[in-house]
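Notes to self after the Tuesday call (sharing in case useful).
The group wants a holo model before anyone commits to mutagenesis around the pocket. I volunteered. Ligand is zinc ion. Logging inputs and output together so the record is complete.
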Amino acid sequence: MTVKRLIYYPQDEALLRQKSLRVSNLKNKRLKRLVQDLKDTLESQPGAAIAAPQIGVFKRVAVAKFGQNDDDDEQPMLTLINPEILEAGEPATGFDGCLSIPDIYTWDTPRPSWIRYRALGEDGRQIVGRVEGMDARVLHHEIDHLDGILFLDRLRNPDELYTPIADEDGKTKMVRLSALPRMS
Ligand SMILES: [Zn+2]
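Result:
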């Protein structure tokens, strides 16, 4: 079990902005280790997916748990090596959050409503799949990481960022980030 340290925005922004390289050698011990590190790290986190640059490795590899739409069961972790979008549906605005940008959420990023994609699995075999709704958002978000793009870049309105705050009754509510007093 190797849980890697996540890299965070804004302190590690330069790393999160790096473009990752395609994996060319699939029979590589380091790739196997990377996939296992991604799985172990995602296991330790509340998110649905993780991309290699989030643990400081600039290879086009992500691990995702699809099945994020209502009424779907969460699926086992799927490894996506060199994932590519083959075809995508009309963009729809919806939820976004990122393990590298903790406690900040939005409902304002447009992402494709469905995606037909191609990737290689960890056994090196080609996967062609179709995901929709939240799963398409998750896949699109992860491919963005491989290109150095963060969800903050995709906001339609930069003011549409929310953070959870506990009120006096201990209940958590989402408060607009810009409504909070500045700390510095
Ligand atoms: Zn992310």
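Two things stood out.
The pocket of zinc ion is lined by residues 98-100, 141, 145 (CB under 6 Å).
The chain is about 15% helix and 35% strand.
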